[in-house]
Amino acid sequence: MRCANVGTFFLACPMPSNTLPEPAADVPESAADTVFHGIVQGLAQQRFVPGQRLVEVDLAAQFGVSRASVREALQRLAAEGLVDLFRNKGAAIRTLSARETLEVLDVAERMTGLLARSAARAVAAGAPRAPIEDALARLHEADRGQGQDAFASARRALYRALLSTSGSRELRRLLPTIHMPIVYAQHRPAALQRIRMRDYRAMCEAVLQGDEDAADAAGMQHVRNVREAIEAAIASDLGQARR
């Protein structure tokens, strides 16, 4: 089973713990999976950046796989819109225009609300709260100073917990196609993590209370807040470019 490209939006609760079990992570099942997920995670960790050329021989050496596996992974990444393939010129991480960025956020807003609503509905119906609570606690720990890599990993674990709790096959299929990894790799406003943690807490409370409407609203509001921060950063960049 291919693991989902997850990791954008979620919450944190002040639940200190250094004894929580490590959240179950999806394990790549092929060499192409290793490259695929390595590049997706590398975007979150700033090891890959939008516009960067991807050279087959370099990726093969980096991930310890064959060039055929690299080509398979690049084809999959291109199919999901994360990579652009150029005839006789190789591949590059996709770069989004300002308009494309805002279009991605439009879709993410609706889907994040739906994911939160679906998870809250499942909790209200008796689904276990512990996977989400544990993932939230780990995210909170990462936010308290373990670095960007730890935060990105914890966020992906929370995404998995919410998806698993929701039980929705359609969400599991659709969410990885949203190009939020590119958006977050390309736009990193200084206020973004503060916005995330504040919003994650609000959505956390609603989901764990099984309040579908509040969870939906909190999820959508989070992406609106992210959009506002990114729009401000884009406007600032344009203003500086004109000077």
TrEMBL record:
Keywords: DNA-binding, Transcription, Transcription regulation
InterPro entries per UniProt: GntR_C (IPR011711), TF_FadR/GntR_C (IPR008920), Tscrpt_reg_HTH_GntR (IPR000524), WH-like_DNA-bd_sf (IPR036388), WH_DNA-bd_sf (IPR036390)
Highest taxon in the source lineage: Bacteria
The keyword Transcription is assigned to this record: yes
Matches recorded under SMART domains: FCD, HTH_GNTR
Short name of one Pfam family: FCD
Start and end residues of each HTH gntR-type domain: 29-96
GO molecular function: DNA binding; DNA-binding transcription factor activity
Protein name: Transcriptional regulator, GntR family
Species name: Alicycliphilus denitrificans (strain DSM 14773 / CIP 107495 / K601)
